[in-house]
TrEMBL record:
<dbReference type="InterPro" id="IPR015943">
    <property type="entry name" value="WD40/YVTN_repeat-like_dom_sf"/>
</dbReference>
<dbReference type="InterPro" id="IPR052025">
    <property type="entry name" value="Xyloglucanase_GH74"/>
</dbReference>
<protein>
    <submittedName>
        <fullName>Exo-alpha-sialidase</fullName>
    </submittedName>
</protein>
Length: 361
């Protein structure tokens, strides 16, 4: 069975898990006392490159990289992600590190707070601001979500290196078809519950977007109230929340090989953000949102209060796929069978902010 590396970003450093045959060993923390909101694993290399966005209250935010699965780390002498002086902005946090696909070798995207997108063409060593998004006339009207204003999702198109979709809180979904030279809002059908206009052109508080593995035009979206699917690359969205115990939540993730299969972790209300019904449950659809199945085997049966954040649910490329999530209780759960059953693989960690997994052998 293949070995899996699992990066777990917490508000006090990075923990790395190595899993094989259902047994796990964890090491860390790396970058202690730094909040790790972003992990990227670049599997286009013989040995996957690990990319980490970490925040230091003393030194500020930075991007670190490792080419030996976390044994050693490199930080560039100059900040990898930095706003140009003329923008009159400074980096608060790196929220997303997304290696592009094989269609764009060595390209890595970084989503940041304040809401901006950066692009690297050297595997994540240096990044440049995507000016057209930063200078978009609607950007100045983006508000800050509860966690801040951030580009937190980047979706690339395996058919076209120039097609990129991003999501920002609180601005909504935007898409470029010309490599970032121009951007348009793609929010038709996604509602807001906190603005006078229910279906504005932009301003939605989108929490996460995930792309279908078989049909790149099919996207799944977890909103601040609402779960949606698009069958036309985000040009329009349809609600698929029926059958879920709640339509509020943060993450959504898709299966690496099975089209129409997606996973969410519902929270019961915007007011308290506890798991729906105060039960630790993942929900899976196998028919693109027409129906949902509760996945609970091996998860706690008692009342549970650990919310799962937007990047704290992911899958690996194993067959069957491994599914992983971490929560704000400092627990990490893993499934080796597409989510049918679960085991607790780490506990008593700091608040889990993000998880990323990759098969390494």
């Amino acid at each position: 069975m293949a070995e899996v590396v699992l990066g777990v970003g917490t508000n006090k450093g990075l923990f790395l898990g190595r899993g094989h045959g259902g047994k796990w060993e964890f090491s860390g923390p790396r970058f202690p006392m730094q909040a790790v909101y972003a992990i990227g694993i670049d599997t286009r290399r013989a040995v996957p490159r690990l990319l980490v966005g970490a925040d230091s209250s003393h030194w500020g935010p930075s991007v670190f990289r490792s080419d030996d699965l976390g044994s050693t780390w490199h930080e560039p002498q100059r900040p990898a992600v930095k706003f140009p002086r003329d923008t009159d902005a400074s980096l608060e946090r790196v929220w997303q590190l997304k290696p592009a696909g094989a269609e764009a070798p060595d390209v890595v995207y970084a989503g940041t707070e304040p809401g901006a997108l950066f692009r690297s063409e050297d595997g994540g060593e240096t990044f440049s601001l995507v000016r057209a998004l930063w200078e978009h006339p609607q950007r100045e009207q983006w508000a800050a979500g509860f966690g801040g204003q951030a580009v937190h999702t980047v979706v690339t198109d395996p058919r076209d290196a120039d097609a990129v979709t991003i999501a920002v809180s609180t601005g909504g979904v935007y898409r470029t078809l010309d490599g970032g030279k121009s951007w348009a809002p793609f929010n038709t059908g996604v509602q807001t519950t906190f603005l006078p206009e229910r279906y504005p052109q932009f301003g939605q508080c989108v929490h996460k977007v995930a792309q279908d593995s078989e049909d790149p035009d099919r996207l799944f979206l977890q909103n601040h109230g609402g779960v949606y699917r698009s069958d036309n690359a985000g040009r329009s969205w349809t609600s698929i929340a029926e059958g879920l115990p709640a339509d509020f939540g943060f993450p959504v993730a898709t299966h690496p090989r099975r089209g129409g299969v997606a996973y969410v972790f519902p929270l019961q209300a915007d007011s308290d953000r506890f798991p729906a019904g105060k039960h630790c449950r993942v929900y899976r659809t196998e028919d693109a949102g027409k129906s949902w199945q509760k996945l609970s085997a091996g998860l706690p049966a008692s009342e549970h209060y650990g919310a799962v954040l937007r990047d704290a649910l992911c899958l690996d490329d194993n067959d069957p796929a491994g599914v992983y999530f971490g929560n704000r209780n400092g627990e990490v759960y893993a499934s080796a069978d597409d989510g049918d059953s679960w085991q607790l693989i780490a506990s008593h960690l700091p608040d889990v902010l993000c998880v990323r997994a990759a098969v390494t052998s």
